[in-house]
Amino acid sequence: MSVKHVLLMFLDQGPASVYQLKTAFENNTNNIWPMNIGQVYQTVQRLERDGLTEIVGEVNDTRPAPAYGITERGRSELWQWISQPVRRVPEARDELVMRIAVLANLEAHIEGTQGQAHGEQPGKGAPQDASSSNRSGIHADSIAPSLASLIHEQRMATIAQLREITRSLSHIPEQNLTAQLLAERHIFELEAEGRWLDHIEGIIAKARNRDALVPRSHDASTPSTRPITPQASNEGNAS
Question: Which of 69, 122, 131, 171 lies most in the core, judged by the most C-beta atoms within 10 Å?
């Protein structure tokens, strides 16, 4: 969040001291973004340096302090910022995605290795023990929990958290708009995560049915070269 632009929003309502700006900031963000007086002071100093604010008088807090007002340049900067949509940056290191993707690849590799080992013809070597390690260091009996179990447990946790947030929403005072908006946002995110879990189960199942996860080769110990990334395809996009 751009702190300087939020302070400009307050100053657009009227002149204020540094202390008044700090108080307004914390009150309007439900105290979830605490600011010390030094941070606010430094931000206001930069705004004044850039011609976005100016001293317009004096106020009496615990002691006399400069009152800052927004300039026309500051107002132009403010409304330009407000009018720009917020662009969401995809999280490249989402922990849940990484867990599911890695476990899906490991399970698929083991299934492919077992299938090749059991399909060997007599005289071409003894079948590979499914519990033995291969060149990727994977043991067939070391994967716990299973991918299905992981997705199920995550779904249950998501549902439980969704219920908890929904119950807490009824206890938020109507005048606390910030807390209400945050809770509603969290609810929608959890609902989306539940739909995503359902969706990727279908993606992974289709990929396995197409035999696309583990290319077959004569060497049963060769790891898969085509990792799965749980992302929506054109045929599987959720409506």
Answer: 69
Residue 1's pLDDT band, with cuts at 50, 70 and 90, is low
Q: Is 30 left (phi over 0), alpha (psi -120 to 50) or beta?
A: left
Show the tokens assigned to 236: 């599987």
φ, ψ of residue 132 to 5 degrees: the values are -80, 160
Q: Which residues partner with 59 through β-bridges? A: 65
CB atoms within 10 A of CB 75: 14
Please count the helices (runs of H) and the strands (runs of E) in the chain: 7, 2
* 3-class state of residue 236 by DSSP: coil
**What are the pLDDT digits (tens) for 54-86?**
999 998 877 889 999 999 999 999 999 999 888
Alpha helices in 132-172 (DSSP H): 147-169
Measured in degrees and rounded to the nearest 5, phi and psi for residue 140 equal -60, -30
For residues 4 and 13, give the distance between their C-alpha atoms in angstroms, rounded to a whole number: 15
- 6-16 in b/e form (b: 16+ CB < 10 A) is bbbbbbeeebb
